[in-house]
Design goal:
The protein is of the alpha/beta class and 647 residues long. It is 41% helix and 17% strand. The chain is built from 25 helices and 25 strands. The strands form seven sheets. It has an eight-stranded parallel β-barrel with strand order 1-2-5-11-12-13-14-17, surrounded by four helices. The chain has a five-stranded antiparallel β-sheet with strand order 18-19-20-25-22, with helices on one face. A three-stranded antiparallel β-sheet has the order 7-9-8, covered by helices on one side. A hairpin with a 2-residue loop joins strand 19 (583-590) and strand 20. The structure holds alpha-D-glucopyranose (2 copies). Residues 229, 296, 298, 339, 402-403, 405, 455 line the site of one alpha-D-glucopyranose.
Length: 647
């Protein structure tokens, strides 16, 4: 008998005794749990052993974890257990061409959770099947990194509503065909979280959940190999703790803070941290959250002498969380947020790890192609880095709440004769509007003079040229800017995977500079692209002459195209050699269906020679989206910044 079966055999009677009343009330549920444990405990056990076998109290923590799983399973509401069944019968549901994601801040989009509920008809009108609410958990007043500093995972931030309202919203969304997506901010808590507060008062168990250091000795050693993430806010990765005597003079020690000083990194070398967060995750799943966005996955394991990003144990931890979900909340899926080198991004994607992942490379390279008007890097990346496990999916986006980091691989760029460092420099200049011929109005984010590193903030429409065109130029430039917006959205809607819209972008929302006069936001330029929804502007979305209407209707057409054609399911993609530097081409297939997509990134008409369509055996296909001229010989001419689909 294997080690894991032996442990399970010993643990089951303890569970049975502890949960006797629940088992008596619902024996069938107990049977389901034991069946799930038989299937998934071996994996969980192996992962847990990998992480924690050196702990003298290994079995104590393992048992504690099983109690957490059992408790969550017994608390799981009937409708979610029905959902579990439905998802298990159709595990690849998220690959459907009907899928369309949207992301919003609760307060900025609709005031509070009730406000979001009232907007369900709008989400349906747009065609959403997936709604990500940015972090809505209790957070510090004032600075809180847009909610990514969580003070309590089980409480909604009071101005936004209550956990009961969240559960109701999840149910109503599901009834409307929309899955609720929420963050598990599991790399850190806010310094106001009760665990952090207890740690400050000297509670030993709580202190072990974080990384505290009495002086700079170890922090200095770690920092030799760490990257600075938010250098504007504090150098390095550690923050001083207030002096014990309250005088503010000498710090009483240091705490690990990868992001802001008020975001304290959790220590997963301690199994208690893992167990507690598994409990928080399952609590969230039991409120009706169907997809969990695992925030900042790259950073969750630290080891001296490394950069403490993407370490093997980070993967082991996520797999262990995933195994826990398979046992107690089977419908739950994970989406990874790893904005790192493309090789590292890919490593988080697996049916047993994160079934979904942001695609930061596609995002960055779409903007790169708009700036350079060339598609080489993008074509190369789609050809070599887009393929992932058949049972997973990319989440493709053009903008999100964060900055744009130019995370293409230097070696990919080098193979095309491009120097990565210089090229990033160019992109940063371009998107700050400093480069001749730039149409963009972006802002720098976390510019680091020590390394020359910089990222870009800005709303999609402003980065695509709409702001400049409206204020300084004329109708031709406005039209081009709108086409740019539609072109990059056209790609995320047809390339395969789940397209994710950053709401506001669908009506061409521009940069909002008002954050600069709010002291809690002024230091963080990402707020420029996090405006409050302007419902007067939304009201113009059906007006074909208004900017809002032109963007919205354009986008709605591509959404409809996606929803009507099964070929956009899955992620079977072949990049085409278009013989034109400015034109991206790819073929999509799904079952017996086939479509060809062409996108012209330049502001001039571009023609593909007849042999291209002939070689693709495409002459019999129909133009199902966009405008193009096909000559008698088969030469295909795309309009400036044109996007077309043949099927
Ligand atoms: C993620 C979030 C970002 C936040 C950081 C720290 O990267 O997307 O907004 O600042 O994590 O939680
Ligand atoms: C992510 C990224 C980091 C990014 C930050 C917030 O965790 O890894 O590079 O800048 O979030 O924007």
């Amino acid at each position: 008998m294997s080690e894991s079966s032996r442990s399970l055999r010993r643990l089951l009677p303890c569970l049975e005794a502890t949960f006797a009343p629940q088992i008596a009330a619902d024996p069938q549920r107990w049977q389901q749990l034991t069946r799930r444990l038989q299937t998934h405990f071996p994996a969980l056990f192996a992962l847990y052993l990998d992480l924690y076998s050196a702990r003298y109290d290994f079995f104590y923590h393992l048992q504690d974890l099983l109690f957490t799983l059992a408790r969550a399973w017994f608390e799981r509401p009937a409708d979610l257990r029905a959902l579990d069944k439905q998802r298990e019968a159709d595990p690849l549901w998220f690959q459907s061409h009907k899928m369309l994601g949207g992301v919003i801040y609760v307060d900025l989009f609709a005031g509070d959770l009730e406000g979001v509920r009232a907007r369900i008809p709008y989400f349906q009108e747009l065609g959403l099947t997936y709604l990500h609410l940015m972090p809505f958990f209790r957070m510090p007043r004032g600075e809180n990194d847009g909610g990514y500093a969580v003070s309590d995972y089980r409480q909604v931030h009071p101005p936004l509503g209550t956990m009961e309202q969240l559960a109701t919203l999840a149910r109503d969304l599901r009834a409307a065909g929309i899955s609720l997506v929420a963050d598990l901010v599991f790399n850190h808590t806010s310094n106001e979280h009760p665990w952090a507060q207890a740690a400050l008062t000297g509670d030993e168990d709580a202190r072990e959940l974080y990384f505290f250091f009495p002086d700079r000795t170890l922090p200095d050693q770690y920092e030799r190999t760490l990257r600075e993430i938010f250098p504007d806010e504090h150098p390095g990765a550690f923050s001083p703790l207030p002096a014990g005597d309250g005088s503010g003079a000498k710090p009483s020690g240091w705490v690990w803070t990868t992001f802001h000083s008020y975001q304290w990194d959790l220590n997963y070398a301690n199994p208690d941290t893992f167990n507690r967060m598994a409990g928080e995750m399952l609590f969230l799943a039991n409120q009706g959250v169907e997809i969990i966005r695992l925030d900042a996955v790259a950073f969750i394991w630290k080891q001296m002498g490394t950069n403490c990003e993407n370490l093997p144990q980070a993967h082991t931890l996520i797999r262990a969380f995933n195994a826990a979900a398979r046992i107690a909340a089977p419908a739950l899926l994970f989406k990874s947020e790893a904005i790192v080198h493309p090789d590292e991004v890919a490593r988080y994607i697996h049916p047993e790890e994160c079934q979904l992942s942001y695609n930061p490379l596609l995002m960055a390279l779409l903007w790169n192609s708009l700036a350079t008007r060339k598609v080489r890097l993008l074509s190369q990346a789609l050809a070599s880095r887009f393929r992932i496990h058949l049972k997973t999916a990319w989440v493709n986006y053009v903008r999100c709440h964060d900055d744009i980091g130019w995370t293409f691989a230097d070696e990919d760029a080098a193979s095309l004769g491009v120097n990565g460092f210089d090229h990033r420099h160019f992109l940063n200049d371009f998107y700050r509007g400093r480069f001749p011929g730039s149409f963009a109005r972006g802002l720098p984010f976390q510019e680091n003079p020590k390394t020359g590193d910089c990222r870009i903030s800005g709303a999609c429409a402003s980065l695509a040229g709409l702001e400049k065109a409206l204020t300084e130029e004329g109708p031709t430039e406005v039209e081009l800017a709108i086409r740019r917006i539609l072109l990059i959205h056209g790609i995320i809607l047809t390339v395969g995977g789940i397209p994710l819209l950053y709401l506001g972008d669908e009506i061409g929302t521009l940069n909002d500079y008002s954050y600069q006069s709010d002291p809690a936001k002024a230091a963080d330029s990402r707020w420029v692209h996090r405006p409050r929804a302007d419902w007067a502007r939304y009201a113009r979305r059906h007006d074909p002459h208004a900017i809002e209407g032109r963007v919205y209707n354009g986008l709605r057409q591509i959404i409809q195209l996606r929803k009507e054609h099964e070929v956009f399911s899955g992620h079977d993609l072949r990049v085409l050699e278009t013989g034109n530097l400015h034109v991206l081409g790819y073929e999509r297939r799904f079952e017996k269906h086939r479509a060809l997509v062409f996108a012209n990134f330049s502001e001039q008409e571009q023609t593909l020679t007849p042999n291209i369509l002939i070689q693709l055996d495409a002459c019999a296909l129909n133009l199902i989206y966009g405008q193009a001229a096909i000559s008698e010989t088969g030469a295909l001419t795309l309009p400036p910044v044109g996007f077309i689909v043949l099927a």
